[in-house]
Amino acid sequence: MKGFFITGTDTEIGKTCITAGLTAALQNAGLRVAPIKSLAAGQEQDATGRWVNEDVQQLHAAQTLGLTLDEVGPLQFRTPCAPHIAARIDGGTIDREALLQKIRSTAAQADVALVEGVGGFRVPLTDNWDTADLAVDLQLPVVLVVGLRLGCINHALLTAEAIRSRGLKLAAWVANTADPDMPHVADNLTALQSGLAVPCLGQVPRLASPEPAAVAAHLTQLSVLLSELPQA
Q: Would you call 114 helix, strand, or coil by DSSP?
């Protein structure tokens, strides 16, 4: 399985937006890319009456591989909350092996898979399985999305420590502007670069229209990811 596991310093810091941007950037580099939202909680009905998740739709729109919505979002719940709670409320289940098989099946159709986690790095999925375990099961190098806002240095360094403690490789990180009014951005970026000690793929500003192509334009160090991919 070739690809990356995309995690973040918290929820609502732009993981899906960055994953869609990375999808566009890697497609521009000539690769067939499968963006996968491993689990998604929170659906609304579209014009056809189908229940859909916004993040899954965003990733589906970014890819050109011809994947279905179910392939991009292999496990979705209607209630917008933590997945293990949503599963209980919706009367569903989170089956570890079944989910892993679906992710791997979609990934097998592409040159590179971008598997997005849920919330931060350690979100419970079942009583004895969380998103960190999911990343370990997939054995993919990790890209960390850091939401630039107050507290981001602590959150980023703790997340990097957790990633490495699981024996996973932190391949790169992305600085994504969560708070456009954050003070001392340059100083924070310097501290993050020093503390994370891996390349930054780019700094993404708060975009008026965060389409995948617009995000991709700010991911200027894509060669870092390309060098991480095993050669055929």
A: strand
